[in-house]
Amino acid sequence: MKRGFFIVLEGPDRSGKSTQAWLLKTWFERKGYCVVLTREPGGTKVSEQVRKILLDPNNNIERLTELFLYESSRAQHTLEIILPALKSGKVVISDRFTMSTSAYQGYGRGLPLKTVNTLNHIATCGLKPDLIFVFDIPDRIFAERERLAQKLTGPDRIERESAAFRKRVNRAYKIMAQKPGVDRVNGALPVADIQKEIISRVRRLVQGTGHKAQSSGGAVSNGLWPTNGQVTRHNAAVTSHRTQVTSNSASKTQKRKSTRLGKL
Ligand SMILES: Nc1ncnc2c1ncn2[C@@H]1O[C@H](COP(=O)(O)OP(=O)(O)OP(=O)(O)O)[C@@H](O)[C@H]1O
Ligand SMILES: [Mg+2]
């Protein structure tokens, strides 16, 4: 079966995910890979509409409704963008994925993690990323970047949450960054140092699978991501067999491979 790579960047607000997602996309493209850079919530027309509802500070949304909205956006994103791209051998980089729902709706809102995990599994058809980078930043740096950002744009609905909520989310990421199969990123380091660290990890993944880049076609933006989210569609690089991936947890990787495109 043709299969690309699925790389996810996770972490609290302002931890540097989008900056690194963009740099990683550029790195892959320079190597000739076909890359889809996408984000959650969002990534498709419908999912971006759901994102607007979720982030609109004028909306009063119950936590259960919020959970379902995130998962509905994710289901559409997985089926319309991620799975087809992986199937055709592309590299998919997603700025946030299931771990965000565990952090914000599970730890942050206090919804049962078991429920969140079940819905995450359903919305993604059991798809697991090849790599998950979890950004960890000290509260002090978070506060500095927060002040800077809110001077530029007003806070969205989630960013308006209480300090206690934000603290629970940040703590959740610190816990999840320690999980096997996850790569913790020190978000307090300079951008170039973080990039180096991420690329070194990605190189090990690429080398472990023998995935080869093919010449790429023209870049096309899907116009869904107004910041730095150009989605690039190229001819697909192809991998037929995946060998063992160097990971924090080899057995976990094996398990992921078997559930990668598994249906419920
Ligand atoms: N390693 C870094 N050192 C210093 N500043 C950084 C670093 N990485 C990103 N920044 C800056 O911090 C701010 C937040 O970065 P970025 O938008 O990449 O974070 P994010 O995790 O995507 O945030 P959000 O969750 O709000 O989308 C930006 O102003 C960015 O330029
Ligand atoms: Mg971002």
Please tell me about this protein's structure.
The chain is of the alpha/beta class and 264 residues long. It has helices spanning 17-30, 45-55, 63-87, 98-108, 113-123, 139-152, 163-176, 191-209, 250-259; strands at 5-10, 35-39, 91-95, 131-136, 183-186. The chain has nine helices and five strands; from the N terminus they run βαβααβααβααβαα. The chain has a single domain (5-258), classed as 3-Layer(aba) Sandwich (Rossmann fold). The chain is globular. The two termini are 19 Å apart. The protein has a five-stranded parallel sheet with strand order 2-3-1-4-5, sandwiched between helices.
What is the topological layout?
Layout: E1 5-10, H1 17-30, E2 35-39, H2 45-55, H3 63-87, E3 91-95, H4 98-108, H5 113-123, E4 131-136, H6 139-152, H7 163-176, E5 183-186, H8 191-209, H9 250-259
Parallel strand pairs: 1-3, 1-4, 2-3, 4-5
Magnesium ion binds next to helix 1.
